[in-house]
Amino acid sequence: MWIWIVEFQRDIYLAFADHIKAFAQGTGWTAFLAFLPMGVVFGAVHAMTPGHSKTVLATYVAGSSSGMWRALMVSLALSFTHVTMSVLIVLLSLPLVSIMFGGNGPGSSPILETASRVLLGLIGAWMLWRALFRADHVHHEGEGVAFGVMAGLIPCPLTLFVMTFAVTRGVPEAGIMFAVVMMLGVAFTLSVVALSVVLFRDRMMRLFNALPRLMDSISRTVEVTAGLVLVAVAVREIAFR
Questions:
Q1: pTM, rounded to two decimals
Q2: Rounded to an integer, what distance in angstroms lies between the CA atom of residue 212 and that of residue 61?
Q3: pLDDT per residue over 77-104, tens digit each?
Q4: What is the distance, to the nearest Å, from the Cα of residue 71 to the centroid of all Cα atoms in its chain?
Q5: CA-CA-CA-CA torsion sign (62, 67, 70, 76)
Q6: Residue 16: which domain range?
Q7: How many domains does the chain have?
Q8: Exposed e or buried b per residue across 155-165, where buried means at least 16 C-beta atoms within 10 angstroms of its C-beta
Q9: Which pLDDT tens digit goes with each residue over 123-136?
Q10: What is the pLDDT of residue 209?
Q11: Residue 81: Cβ within 10 Å count
Q12: Residues 77 and 149 sit within 8 Å (Cβ to Cβ)
């Protein structure tokens, strides 16, 4: 399965590179636009591979009281930030890429990765404090969106590759259009993950509706666990870089 996903990504990436190269050489929009919808499929499949904060997204949604709409907003914010960071890095300045990547090569961004993990650790600590010391708590929609933005700070390596490829050939518009359709695919996969977690969590919670105290204990336990996981991920990623 993973081999197929990797091969599929490689084939589509190479195809996009060929179409961008042809577009830069003056073949026009027709062929490029005809192939562009494949970027949605590419983004969806790409988001299934390790990374893209799927685990922290699922952990946060499971530990919060987010409903379908709020979970969807979190996944969309994560997807938008994840892809947009790559576009901005390349468009603002190609030399900035080497600064942000700290000389570690493409696909790695130490500054943004550290910032993202620190912020996620702070959210985990907040969830722990809220579960342990507050009698009643309300999850605000802005909190979920903020989590999505923080988790998505790490730029998408493949979007960086395509954007850089397009900019160096003088057709940044082609790279931006690819990024937009790819973001739709990434958003689709992450939304499925978030909504699936909400469905499972709500179904489990309904099993204990007749036992309010047990329900409250389970809710707090899930939130404490989610907070601990987020803090542990942040500490591990920062300490063992």
A1: 0.76
A2: 21
A3: 999 998 998 888 888 765 555 554 444 4
A4: 13
A5: positive
A6: 2-239
A7: 1
A8: bbbbbbbbbbb
A9: 777 777 766 766 55
A10: 63
A11: 22
A12: yes
Q: What is the dihedral of CA 12, 15, 21, 22, to 10 degrees?
A: -140
Which of 22-36, 42-56, 90-104, 202-216 is the least confident region? 90-104
Token digits of residue 69: 């709409």
pLDDT tens for 177-195 read 999 999 999 999 999 999 9
Beta carbons of 118 and 45 less than 8 angstroms apart:
no
Q: How confident is the model at residue 10 (pLDDT cuts 50, 70, 90)?
A: confident
What six digits make up the tokens of 21? 């190269």
**Buried/exposed code over 198-223 (b: 16+ C-beta within 10 A; e: otherwise):** beebeeeeeeeeeeeeeeeeebeebb
Q: Which two tokens stand for residue 91?
A: 């468009």
Token digits of residue 7: 């091969």
Within a 13 Å sphere around the CA of 207, how many CA atoms are in the beta-carbon half? 7
**156 DSSP assignment:** P
